Amino acid sequence: MSNKFIKQFLISSGILLLLCVLAVVIFDPFFQYHKPLFGLKAVLTDKEYQCTGSLKTFDYDSVIAGSSVAENYNNGWFDQGFGCRSIKAIRSYGATADLCYLLDISFAHQNIKNVFYNLDPSALVADPETTYKMTGCPMYLYDDNYVNDIEYWLNKGVLMEKIPYLVANSLIGGYDENESYNWAQWKEFNSDMALGLYIRKPSVSEMKPENYYDDVLRQNLALLTERIEENPDTCFYVFIPPYSMLWWDNIYRDGDTEAYLYNMEQAMETLLSYKNVKLFYFQNDREVITNLENYMDILHFSPDINHYICDSLISGEHQVIYDNYKENIRDMRALAYEITDKLIKPYEDRIKVDIYDN
Amino acid sequence: MLFNSYVFIFLFLPLVLAGWYFLNYLKAHEAAKFFLAGMSLWFYGYFNKYYLAVIVVSILGNYLLSYLLKVFSSRIFARIGLICGLLINLGLLFYFKYYDFFFENINLIFHTDFTLKNILLPLGISFFTFQQLSFIIDRCRGKAEHYSFANYLTFVTFFPQLIAGPIVLYKEMMPQFEDETKRRFQSDNFAKGIVFFTLGLGKKVLLADVLALPVNFGFDHTPFLDTPSTLLVILAYTFEIYFDFSGYSDMAVGLGKMFNIELPVNFNSPYKACSVKELWQRWHMTLSRFFIQYVYIPLGGSRKGKMRTILNTFMVFFLSGLWHGANWTYIAWGTMQGLLVIWDNLGVIGIKGSNEKVPARIQIPRWLGWFFTFSFFNLSLFFFRSDNMTNAFQMFKNILAFKNTGYIYKVAALMDIPEFYLIKQVINLTVPEMLTYVYLAVFLVLLAVSGFILTRKNTWEIVERYPLNTKLCLWVTVIFVWSVISFSQVSTFIYFNF
């Protein structure tokens, strides 16, 4: 009796677990092993879980790398404009080390023609070490160790949520594969939202010296330039996105304005020394950054701005060259102080004050 | 290493079972014990190697003392040995568990400036310390013999009970490790072990871990909770703590059975108790047994008059509270339990139909006794679960505020579990405004299911009474597979603020 019980238990459990593994490997909603099968779509909505897999297994020749502000690009804009097949490599916060990690996966698996690299100012002062483990990312998807993939194979969330989600979006949801990781559809972009989410410090910190972040800046630039040097046949379209004037007001109050401008100037100087880099600067686009109707908070802009950026990359508008990068920074400095001295004033009564600031 | 992990179930357990039975099959019994102990130490040090140093030092220190007691077998040395044993074990426990708590309070009371050490608490230190303490005390009393190092090592490190009990005594374990009949694979025990382990696993993973979602949220937001949400959160915690702890104990018992080692009962349907005294006869029974044998009886038990009995009982529960953690909340919790047990012992109120030697003056029906006991235990858990006394009192305030702000919907929203995903999507597509009510319904159903399970047979009764047939196997398989796929889940990453 007990022998039979043990055998029955081992066999039935084994079969059920094997079925679970098979379901995950066949449907592979995180695309760790293959591209979508059976006519299913590449439903990409969980970047922490799907970026690495899609970069390993999909066919593409261009990468759109960036932080959450890069999520609302439509891949089709780039595909049509540059005659390429693009994929997104997204990491929240857009730290250089994290994005370089994703780029390394791309370079290891595909011949990359173009990298469209969204360079956030915060990425230049971010930790030069990857943050995936620290932030609780599923590390079993970030290595080539198949043994720890058991966390993927026998995973209730994958079996009960992600596979049904993949199937439903492929068959009935009308999911647009070009809108990978797009979140704009759930958000509103207007001045009420942007101002409502800005908690302003009443105090203004002393301005930090311009080379305050020099050490970490050098390390981050080294990470990026290493990839640029190692891939001379790849064209890097590096672009600095337009954050709203609220962001400039915020960094002014933190005493960061001069340091961030210096960082950007140093980054431009370094990147422009490479032949395979094309640099685009949108921060000083007065029309965009002073119009708070474009934003949902101090830095996340609407998909219209994403489209505008992409069009500019195609047309060459906003491109910065070695001869004019300092002029761009000069313009930005003037605009930054105009914001804090004048342009922000009409909005002050709609901005919340940080009561915990001391 | 956790029982509820892939590495334990798919790697460690098959390896240790295979190695143990293979070495015993080869008649290499001593090697088998060292193998088992070595694997247990791997199990113990899996997350932190520093833990290993602590347990090894503790084992070597106690074994050396036992050896010295064998060499110098005089009464005086036994007394010195007892003092040394208490100092070694309680000193170690004090240093790792209570140092910061003690000096924090000293600093507070005397305005001193002792530096706190923020020491990392070694896993299960309270368990293996008490286990060894019982052995050393009995060695000094001349009640226990000196055992071989292999036996002693196996007794202390035996992985099923190493981290969270049950607290075993040498006298129930040593003979089993010596018993040659237990070294052969016995399918009956093994099958029962599977049932025990799986039911425990289900309690832990499918019930306790899910109940923990609203509970953790609730205790992280104590000032915001209203009366209904506070009541439901504490009820959920009452269920969670039982399923978590008794589930772990069931798993331990099941694993023991796989090795033909019988571990003691630790929980016997405590929430069926009709008095706090009875609850403590059913809850964490091996801890109560330890305190009775090594604290209550040596202090005189009930032999030295009513006042001493009351004091001794109080002492046991005070120490029990302190044993659970270095925080005033645990002490308050233990004290509350002690006071209620003392009250029960006074025999003012009794349960109709109970077999008390001296019938209580007031007899109440069983259901009323159960209601008072269960309600009291629920309320006492405010102290047990809260990070500090302020939060615990805040929870009481929340109840007495008699306010309904609708916060229960926020708490219930934590029930966004994968099992519910498809239903959630259907509701989202059809009547999205109903989703919050559905979450609440799911939460209430989970509480109702938990309550229902508690009224049924417990794991011991199921294993003893149900035949090992295909029907039971089917249930066990479903629970096992469902639990295993619940070890890993997909998290939601909330970002947006760069």
User: What's the assembly state of these chains?
Assistant: heterodimer
Q: What is the string of SSEs of chain A from the N terminus onward?
A: HHEHEHEHHHEHEHHEHHEHE
Q: What is the 3D shape of chain B?
A: globular
CATH topology of chain A: Rossmann fold
Number of helical segments of chain A? 13
Quote the beta fraction of chain A. Answer: 5-15%
CATH superfamily of chain A: SGNH hydrolase
Number of strands of chain A: 8
- Percent helix among the residues of chain A? 40-55%
Principal-axis shape of chain A equals globular
Structural class of chain A: alpha/beta
Under CATH at level 1, the class of chain A stands as Alpha Beta
Would you identify the regions of chain B where 5 or more consecutive residues have pLDDT less than 50? Answer: none
Query: What does the average pLDDT of chain A come to?
Result: 93
Report on the structure:
The complex is a heterodimer of chains A (about 350) and B (about 500). In chain A, helix 8 (about 215-230) packs parallel to helix 10. Chain A is α/β, with parallel strands linked by helices and about 350 residues long. Chain A has a single domain (about 1-355), classed as SGNH hydrolase (Rossmann fold, 3-Layer(aba) Sandwich), CATH 3.40.50.1110. Chain A has a six-stranded mixed sheet with strand order 2-1-3-5-6-7, sandwiched between helices. A two-stranded parallel ribbon of chain A has the order 4-8. The mean pLDDT of chain A is about 95. Chain A is built from 13 helices and eight strands. Chain B has about 500 residues and is mostly helical. Chain B has two domains: about 5-185, no CATH class; about 185-498, no CATH class. Chain B has helices at about 5-25, 30-45, 50-70, 75-110, 125-140, 150-155, 160, 170-180, 185-220, 225-260, 275-280, 285-295, 305-325, 330-345, 365-385, 390-400, 405-410, 420-430, 435-455, 460-465, 470-485; strands spanning about 350, 360-365. A two-stranded parallel sheet of chain B has the order 1-2. In chain B, helix 4 runs antiparallel to helix 5 (about 125-140). The longest helix of chain B has about 35 residues, at about 75-110. Chain B is globular. The mean pLDDT of chain B is about 90. The interface of A and B includes residues 3, 17, 47, 120 and 162 of A.
